[in-house]
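Module 6 notes. Inverse folding takes a fixed backbone as the condition and produces residue identities as the prediction. Think of it as a translation problem where the source language is geometry and the target language is the twenty amino acids. Below is one complete input and output pair. Work through it position by position during the lab.
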């Protein structure tokens, strides 16, 4: 068997594999997301974004809480899984699109709420990580809520090896990802006007792929924010959307 030649191809092969799609499609929304949606019910007055929708579990939770949703994933098989998971909802409530976190297919100031779970750290470079944060600020309305979790560099799996740039780490299958300290991530979010609201949670989870340090919090977008650019290649891979 010939292995995919590039890191982006290897990541795409993993995420589009039928067994991966099946595993993610079988998951349900984390209880903490349901609690967030209950708590911010009064803020759910505009469309919501599920960025990195995977098998659709968070998209379903958003729809069940009365949101109109745009769900976005880089990988076509995950897009198709989300479409299947949400097919029973009324027409006009859900749009599922293929797209990248650093190039969200949406206009400025569109969303009142965004869920971005297990996505940012899959950026292959810190530059693309920063570009993805800027994209979230661009597509959110002032005052909007971002529900975020991402892996961090607060505790590093010994299987990971340093990449070519600071903050870049390489998985055993040679796919790069970006892991930054919690303080650096929060500073990057604050730089585009996204500031924590409520508690900031940090912890280590033991996953099938190894231990991962997690940052989880909700953030609110300030009024009058600017955007910062960035660019990069396709997202990397990590089994992360169950963080």
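Target side of the pair, the amino acids:
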């Amino acid at each position: 068997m010939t292995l995919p030649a590039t890191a982006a191809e290897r990541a795409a092969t993993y995420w589009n594999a039928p067994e991966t799609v099946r595993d993610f499609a079988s998951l349900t929304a984390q209880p903490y997301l349901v609690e967030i949606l209950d708590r911010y019910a009064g803020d759910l007055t505009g469309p919501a974004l599920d960025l990195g929708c995977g098998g659709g579990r968070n998209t379903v939770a958003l729809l069940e809480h009365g949101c109109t949703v745009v769900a976005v994933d880089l990988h076509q098989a995950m897009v198709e899984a989300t479409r299947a998971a949400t097919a029973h909802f009324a027409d006009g409530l859900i749009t599922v699109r293929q797209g990248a976190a650093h190039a969200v297919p949406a206009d400025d100031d569109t969303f009142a709420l965004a869920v971005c779970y297990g996505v940012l750290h899959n950026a292959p470079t810190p530059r693309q990580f920063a570009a993805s944060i800027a994209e979230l600020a661009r597509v959110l309305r002032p005052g909007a809520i971002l529900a975020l979790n991402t892996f961090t560099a607060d505790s590093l799996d010994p299987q990971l090896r340093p990449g070519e740039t600071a903050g870049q780490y390489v998985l055993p299958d040679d796919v790069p990802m970006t892991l930054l300290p919690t303080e650096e991530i929060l500073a990057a979010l604050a730089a585009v006007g996204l500031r924590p609201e409520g508690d900031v949670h940090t912890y280590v989870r033991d996953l099938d792929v190894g231990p991962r340090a997690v940052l989880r919090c909700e953030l609110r977008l300030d009024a009058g924010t600017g955007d910062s650019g960035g660019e990069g290649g396709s997202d990397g891979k990590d089994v992360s959307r169950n963080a």
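Reference fact for the lab report: DSSP finds seven helices and eleven strands in the chain.
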